[in-house]
DNA sequence: TGTTAGCACTCATGTGTTGAGAGTGCTAAC
DNA sequence: GTTAGCACTCTCAACACATGAGTGCTAACA
């Protein structure tokens, strides 16, 4: 069951099969394999090995007279042991850095650029999850007058996030009450995290506080809670869903394409899946995923903003994908986002970035 | 060329063909037509009429031995003269009202609900354009301290819109400068519309103003401009793109499906198209659209917010769509949004809504 | 003169057949 | 343990063919 079951030659053959299948998408036969990869053994021998590999669960057979196709288990082995994750050349890296630096101080557009880069460079569907905000601490809460019946609620967090929402009041406010409200709420919630505030019994803590605010509070509190909810809600940006049409596994199979796109359109579900993945680079292959993604693979990685707020990005596509290249791209982009949005003394963004641990000093 | 060319019977036949084709998607033949719509004439007669209609450009022939298919011109006639736009029953109306009232005071979710309703009820791809903000007048501009090198720029408009953006400064600010900056900018731009401010020479007006602010201004002004740009940018919400898979014109034709989805994925282009349409309910059919949508139809309508800010919503789908039903739905939804967000003395939202001009008092 | 029945003709579609090609598994020889 | 040879399997594309829906035309009819 573990790779040690496989002798050197079997590994070599398996790797060759995976490599061929990943590039062509066609089941690979013993004959064509012996041609493309000269490994000094005849097709017949390869057939024997293939037969063994199939028995061990690494290969499957679409039908008797077809070539072999790697199983999910084979991809797992490939990803864990065989693949090369340093497949980014300097041109690719340059492209990523340039694009991300274009919008260095605007998180939103950086996120969008990242999604774009990711789908362009992998030719898959990419997604980027906005940073999580559960642990953002509130700094102050403000109400701004708009017109006789409308005010804007503004919530500012310590990390600089601001959320706002217009509120229609059922009765007119006084300037005085508005300010009092701001003060009371700021006092109550300052320094607390969003999730902590959500856990509090907000309405109660209010009616106890000040009788005179009760009518205003009745209007304001529901909106306040909804706004906090919204701040928590992870926003998912997607890109390149029409890339699948260039993949043979989809372009011949309407059913499959439809299923894929319907799955993508259920954003809540997808967000859920992505949010609940492990930290760091995570690759799940085929049936390692839930039922509705059981012939897809998902690769995700995290990025940091201000050293803390954590978002996630990744791609989704058929199990036959260029794991090495894709993983390299994802890693490089996520590292780069993190680096761009790292807290730093001065405002200069380092344009150098290494993903292999070694440091090079300018060039 | 105009409908008067058509005698009563031709019109009747044309309408029957369109009706049949819209529901089945199959070319309709003389024989099956005479069966489904008993109009007291034989298939042969119908054939003669069909032949005339084809000559006049209302029908086409996929191939010799196929039935007739309505041309874009026929749909145009249908939409202008024949269709019935009061196809919403009370249950549908109820559904729309309920859904939209769920989020009556939150523009964003109302917009999303509207898009959802629209795609669900029409089984097409829907879109909603956020309200245009060109004419929003600025109320005040504020800077909020976040940390030593970061401030949040906040722009509040008279209509209650708030936009904000974190800015990293190249050198630390003083509380004093920040407040001065707020004052100067508010003084300069208060009461002006966003588009008017964009037209001003912002940098110049600044350096003239205060020498001491110049370094701060250098950091802040570009972000200010970008934020204004963002406020102007119409945001497009889409829904139901996978609905096309249930339509026979797409589900048999990968090429077409791909083209459609690629077209949708170019949001900027699509936004452009939608923004530049006429006011009110607008229907464009087939080749009335630009090249890349030449076998699609587009139906849009406007909605108002606070009696002024105007957004747009609609659907896109094959020329074979239920124009009557779809138009009714779009109209009803847009009227309902407008009504929900109308400025009004009290906060109660009227739950009654008529789209046919007559009034019914709770029945 | 408009309407209709009859008939020959046209295509798209579905089905069955066939052959080529790629690949396997087995056996026997090296 | 490795390889050549061979029979066998299965997919796929091409082709022929029948079917059926539909048309256009002509001639007869009311």
Describe the structure.
The structure is a homodimer of 363-residue chains. Chain A has 363 residues and is of the alpha+beta class. Chain A is built from 14 helices and ten strands. In chain A, the strands form three sheets. In chain A, strands 7-3-10-9-8 form a five-stranded antiparallel sheet. In chain A, strands 4-5-6 form a three-stranded antiparallel sheet, with helices on one face. The first copy, chain A, has a two-stranded antiparallel sheet with strand order 1-2. Mean pLDDT of chain A is 86; it is low at 344-363. At the A-B interface, β4, β5, β6 and α12 of A face β4, β5, β6 and α12 of B. Chain A binds a DNA duplex (30 and 30 nucleotides) through residues 27, 29-32, 41-45, 47-48, 50-51, 61-68.
Summarize the structure.
Two copies of one chain form a homodimer. By secondary structure, chain A is α+β, with helices and mostly antiparallel strands.
Topology overview:
The structure is a homodimer of 363-residue chains.
Chain A: H1 8-24, H2 30-36, H3 43-55, E1 59-60, E2 69-70, H4 72-82, H5 90-101, H6 107-122, E3 125-129, E4 138-147, E5 150-157, E6 162-168, H7 175-189, H8 194-199, H9 202-209, H10 214-232, E7 236-239, H11 248-251, H12 254-265, H13 267-275, E8 282-285, E9 296-305, E10 309-318, H14 323-340
Antiparallel strand pairs in A: 1-2, 3-7, 3-10, 4-5, 5-6, 8-9, 9-10
The first copy, chain A, binds a DNA duplex (30 and 30 nucleotides) through residues 27, 29-32, 41-45, 47-48, 50-51, 61-68.
């Amino acid at each position: 069951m573990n790779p040690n079951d496989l002798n050197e030659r079997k590994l070599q053959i398996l790797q060759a099969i995976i490599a061929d299948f990943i590039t062509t998408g066609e089941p690979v036969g013993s004959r064509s394999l012996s041609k493309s990869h000269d490994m000094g053994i005849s097709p017949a021998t390869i057939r024997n090995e293939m037969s063994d590999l199939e028995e061990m669960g690494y290969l499957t057979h679409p039908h008797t007279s077809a070539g072999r196709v790697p199983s999910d288990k084979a991809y797992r082995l490939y990803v864990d042991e065989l693949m090369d994750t340093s497949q980014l050349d300097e041109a690719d890296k340059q492209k990523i850095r340039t694009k991300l630096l274009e919008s260095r101080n605007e998180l939103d557009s950086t996120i969008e650029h990242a999604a774009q880069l990711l789908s362009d460079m992998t030719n898959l569907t990419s997604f980027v999850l906005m940073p999580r905000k559960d642990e953002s601490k509130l700094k102050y809460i403000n109400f701004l007058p708009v017109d006789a019946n409308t005010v804007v609620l503004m919530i500012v967090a310590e990390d600089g996030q601001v959320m706002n929402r217009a509120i229609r009041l059922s009765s007119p406010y006084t300037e005085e009450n508005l300010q009092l409200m701001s003060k009371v709420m700021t006092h109550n919630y300052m320094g607390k995290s969003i999730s902590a505030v959500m856990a509090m019994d907000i309405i109660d803590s209010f009616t106890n506080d000040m009788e005179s605010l009760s009518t205003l509070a009745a209007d304001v509190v529901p909106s306040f809670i909804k706004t906090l909810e919204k701040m928590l809600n992870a926003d998912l940006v997607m890109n390149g869903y029409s890339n699948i049409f260039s993949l043979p596994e989809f372009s011949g199979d309407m059913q499959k394409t439809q299923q894929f796109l319907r799955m993508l359109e259920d954003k809540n579900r997808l967000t859920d899946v992505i949010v609940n993945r492990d930290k760091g680079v995570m690759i799940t292959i085929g049936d390692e995923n839930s039922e509705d993604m059981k012939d897809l693979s998902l690769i995700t990685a995290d990025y940091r903003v201000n050293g803390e707020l954590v978002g996630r990005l990744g791609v989704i596509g058929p199990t036959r994908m260029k794991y090495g290249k894709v993983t390299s791209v994802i890693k490089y982009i996520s590292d780069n986002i993190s680096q761009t949005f790292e807290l730093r003394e001065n405002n200069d963004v380092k344009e150098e970035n290494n993903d292999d641990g070694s440091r090079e000093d300018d060039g």
